[in-house]
């Protein structure tokens, strides 16, 4: 008799785990075990479901490196016992957490899927029920050879499964809250769930390793017309910052500024790292394609290709090691988890 897939749900907080207080009408986080009472359909799935919660569930706006470490440890500690993992998470920073976890896990051969809701599970029109049930089915799905169908970190939302480090939150009000600007969906849930296996990412046959030493001495600068670079001199200060992601115009273009060039040169001379990504909704950085990005190419700024902001920031946090700067630069400049095309 075929055994049921064993899935661990990890609850981190967020709208999906909130219920409206009938007296105050305020949304409150509840014991996650009550979610099973709200979604009795879970009992009909041919899946063995266990659940754990982080020590202190938080609104996703409060998510930080310590929470990512805690989630990663929970997955790592239970990796052998379970066939896959479903992480319930607030939507606001879900793409950041998905991106971070994709880089923190090396040699991943099991699914780690994040989902959440725009409306609490206790609301009649909630999208949480469908997201929860369908995401569980995705995590439990097997290939013909018995291996997990998904072997990467992904986000499931509103009937679409996206690669975690290719996803970004697109809407604060629509159920279709997430998109993947430069990479198509891994699966779409209709009458049945259609998987696009040619789009899947699979790790090399390397041991499962968790990277938990993250560097949060990183900064983000978004360019805009009329930007006064003198205001950003402390951002490019190696005493406080090890890496800077710059969201540039178009294909990686910047205003002509000798001051910016000197800021970056001095920062890099001290051991700082600069990564160039586009602020466009889709497309890629092509340093040197236009004259306005030639300086970046010349002085050694790293091209981030078509990485999302979430992927660029978290990749830098995971792999920026000031003790091995050259290796850090090599990793940042190449695709390692399906996060970028150049």
Topology at a glance:
Elements: E1 6-11, E2 18-20, E3 27-29, H1 33-38, E4 48-53, H2 65-77, E5 84-88, H3 94-104, E6 105-106, E7 112-115, H4 128-140, E8 153-157, E9 160-163, E10 168-169, E11 178-179, E12 187-189, E13 193-195, E14 209-210, E15 218-222, E16 243-248, H5 258-269, E17 273-278, H6 294-299, E18 302-303, H7 309-319, H8 325-332
Parallel strand pairs: 1-4, 1-5, 5-7, 7-8, 15-16, 16-17, 17-18
Antiparallel strand pairs: 2-3, 6-14, 8-9, 9-12, 10-11, 12-13
Helix pairs in contact: 3-7
Outline:
The protein is α/β, with parallel strands linked by helices and 342 residues long. The chain has helices at 33-38, 65-77, 94-104, 128-140, 258-269, 294-299, 309-319, 325-332, and strands spanning 6-11, 18-20, 27-29, 48-53, 84-88, 105-106, 112-115, 153-157, 160-163, 168-169, 178-179, 187-189, 193-195, 209-210, 218-222, 243-248, 273-278, 302-303.
């Amino acid at each position: 008799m075929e055994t049921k897939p064993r899935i661990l749900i990890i609850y981190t907080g967020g709208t999906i785990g909130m219920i409206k207080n009938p007296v105050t009408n305020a949304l409150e986080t509840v014991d996650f075990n009550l979610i099973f009472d709200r979604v009795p359909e879970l009992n009909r799935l041919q899946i063995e479901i266990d659940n754990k919660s982080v020590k202190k569930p938080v609104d996703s706006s409060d998510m930080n490196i310590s929470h990512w470490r805690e989630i990663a440890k929970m997955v790592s500690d239970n990796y052998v016992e379970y066939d896959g993992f479903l992480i319930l998470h607030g939507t606001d920073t879900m793409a950041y957490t998905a991106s971070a976890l994709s880089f923190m896990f090396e040699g991943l051969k099991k699914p780690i899927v994040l989902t959440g809701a725009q409306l609490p599970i206790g609301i009649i029109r909630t999208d949480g029920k469908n997201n929860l049930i369908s995401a569980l089915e995705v995590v439990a799905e097997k290939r013909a050879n018995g291996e997990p169908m998904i072997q990467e970190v992904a986000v499931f939302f509103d009937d679409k499964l996206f690669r975690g480090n290719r996803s970004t939150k697109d809407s604060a009000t629509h159920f279709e809250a997430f998109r993947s600007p430069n990479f198509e969906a891994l699966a779409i849930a209709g009458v049945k769930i259609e998987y696009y296996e040619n789009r899947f990412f699979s790790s090399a046959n390397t041991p499962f390793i968790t990277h938990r030493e993250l560097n949060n001495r990183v900064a983000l600068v978004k360019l805009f017309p009329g930007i006064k670079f003198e205001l950003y001199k402390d951002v490019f200060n190696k005493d406080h910052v090890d890496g800077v992601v710059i969201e540039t115009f178009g294909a990686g273009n910047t205003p002509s500024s000798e001051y910016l060039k000197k800021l970056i040169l001095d920062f890099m001379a001290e051991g700082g790292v600069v990564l160039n990504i586009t602020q466009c909704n889709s497309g890629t950085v092509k340093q040197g394609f236009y004259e306005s990005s030639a300086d970046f190419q010349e002085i050694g700024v790293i091209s981030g290709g078509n990485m999302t902001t979430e992927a660029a920031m978290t990749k830098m946090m995971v792999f920026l090691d000031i003790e091995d700067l050259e290796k850090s630069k090599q990793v940042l400049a190449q695709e390692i988890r399906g996060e970028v095309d150049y």
